[in-house]
């Protein structure tokens, strides 16, 4: 409900902000928002696991599927990072794995196609209203 | 691309019109002026301005001849083009360079298609418009310039260019160029794209033939302030979404049961669950606030 996330995510967000600032040399936490509107960065576990964060391109998927397929049939919540997706679930055919199974879409061995974000990028919806504020409210606006 | 563009540029040089370096510098100048002045209208197509790189819009204008274009740029053109785009202190030559730059960009947009405009071709062939801009001089430094919209993944600031997979991803513009554009978000009018069958997103994960049951019911929400009332169309929403996506969690399906405010929406609640994150953002006020209030004399204004 609030813009900021309490508790645990703070440490991560701060660390991430630091890394991002160093990596991009950009403007604060969201870098310079050049990525596509609605690109979702998912970094629940990736950084900790030594993988690049996942970037989910909404635009690409909405050309191919209606919102309902993922958000009703597959159970994706309307919230960046709000689905506790991990590779076991994907391999078992849940979430991304419902299509990324080598049948409907390319399968899980193509790690780097999803895990393609700059390391340390926090979980976020890119270009969201909050991000578009010229002056950022605080580190890692995640909504 | 550079290579293909250099050939006409070299041809120019050989003809003795202008040495390559000068043509290139001219183009840089044009781009700088474009970024400073013309971009305000010509990037988004405001008030009928032909957009940068929009080959279709530019074609008839280019056909009319480069001198006519110079004339319009220098002296202005009805209904909305002011003389020199409003920057009357800029020298004529620079304005012409900006015109050349935009004409070249339009031709880049058209790329192959043979004929187009043979006549003024010699005037405006030169090099690619990909020079880095001095950021401190940009038209509005807090606003994302048109040239930074819809970049390919390796340049978008969040994808890691060192990752091989990044380079295999589809660049958005490759697709967006064929879709109706809008002024915000992805700058694609997704609803129109769907209505016009330009895209065919599946309604079912596996069954390409499955189709939604579209519900055509408008809900009018009267708003307190001076803004026009909101018309919420179920039609466009049910084409993409299932009822359960919104009801009952986000919206209680009952008249008067939902408190909605722009503050909540801006914070990502109610309509803001999607609008401002993936569906068209809240900057597009009038797409929702579309129903004029009954105009009445001031003394009766309380009626709403």
What report would you give on this structure?
The complex is a heterodimer of chains A (143) and B (304). Chain A has 143 residues and is mainly alpha-helical. Chain A has a domain at 35-118 and 126-132: Cytochrome C3 (Alpha-Beta Complex), CATH 3.90.10.10. Helix content of chain A is 31%, strand content 7%. Chain A contains 6 helices and 3 strands, in the order H-E-E-H-H-H-H-E-H. Chain A has helices at residues 8-24, 58-64, 67-73, 87-91, 111-114, 129-132; strands at 39-42, 54-57, 124-125. Chain A has a 3-stranded antiparallel β-sheet. The radius of gyration of chain A is 15 Å and the shape is globular. In chain B, helix 2 (20-42) crosses helix 5 (92-110), helix 3 packs across helix 5 (92-110) and helix 4 (66-75) crosses helix 5 (92-110). In chain B, strands 1-2-3 form a 3-stranded antiparallel β-sheet. Chain B folds into 2 domains: 2-129, Cytochrome Bc1 Complex, Chain D, domain 2; 218-303, Cytochrome C3 (Alpha-Beta Complex). Chain B has 304 residues and is mostly helical. Chain B is 34% helix and 4% strand. In chain B, strand 1 (218-221) and strand 2 form a beta hairpin. Chain B has 11 helices and 3 strands; from the N terminus they run H-H-H-H-H-H-H-E-E-H-H-H-H-E. Chains A and B meet through helix 2, helix 3, helix 5 and helix 6 of A and helix 6 of B.
Keyword list:
heterodimer, A: 143 residues, mainly alpha, Cytochrome C3, three-stranded antiparallel beta sheet, 7% strand, globular, disordered N terminus, disordered C terminus, B: 304 residues, Cytochrome Bc1 Complex, Chain D, domain 2, 2 domains, 11 helices, 4% strand
Question: In a nutshell, what does this entry contain?
Answer:
The complex is a heterodimer of chains A (143) and B (304). Chain A has 143 residues and is mainly alpha-helical.
| Span of the ends, CA to CA of chain A | 9 Å
CATH class of the largest domain in chain B: Mainly Alpha
Shape category of chain A: globular
Helicity of chain A, as a percent range: 25-40%
Strand/helix succession of chain A: HEEHHHHEH
Which architecture of the largest domain in chain B does the CATH hierarchy give at level 2? Orthogonal Bundle
* Percentage beta strand of chain B: under 5%
Level-2 CATH architecture of the domain at 35-118 and 126-132 in chain A: Alpha-Beta Complex
Strand order of the largest sheet of chain A: 2-1-3
Using a beta-carbon cutoff below 8 angstroms, give the protein chain pair with the largest interface and the number of residues from each chain. A-B, 57 and 54 residues
Rg calc of chain A: 15 Å
Please identify the top-level CATH class of the domain at 35-118 and 126-132 in chain A.
Answer: Alpha Beta
Structural category of chain A is mainly alpha
Oligomer: heterodimer
